[in-house]
Amino acid sequence: MKPLIYLFFTFFLNNTAKSTHESISASFNVIERGYVLMLEIEFDMYNYLMQSNVTSHKVTLEEFSTYLNETTSWEFNGVQINPKVLSIKSEREHIKVICFLSKSKNKIKSIKVKNDFLSEVKDHSNIIKLDLNNSFKDFRLHKERKNLVVNYP
Fold it and tell me: Which domains occur in the chain, in start order?
């Protein structure tokens, strides 16, 4: 009987450890690539699939595009931009999405971001990384802080 109990607890503890994350977050990297502004997003697939307005059992381009535009807004130099999803790749339980934002701006003076992505997930954070104007800045957004304004000199 003892071996069965030991086996049960070993199985339970191993499965629990595999399903937890130390950091529950999604990252949003805004970068200039040549003559375009791109947005690279990385997040946990299961956190996304558990959202109340997601109906598919996998991450689809159409449904993800709708969800992204409902839960985020992006404004560069006073111009509202909706990201256009170009590709979605899954890497185990993580998803990486590449989006086109716009042709590159000569000099970005201001950025406004509203981010409510995966806000239904307990203790979730959205990390906004801005690699623009020859500088790098990153910010943490969460349930109590959903808006960000960055001004460049």
Answer: 24-151 (2.60.40)
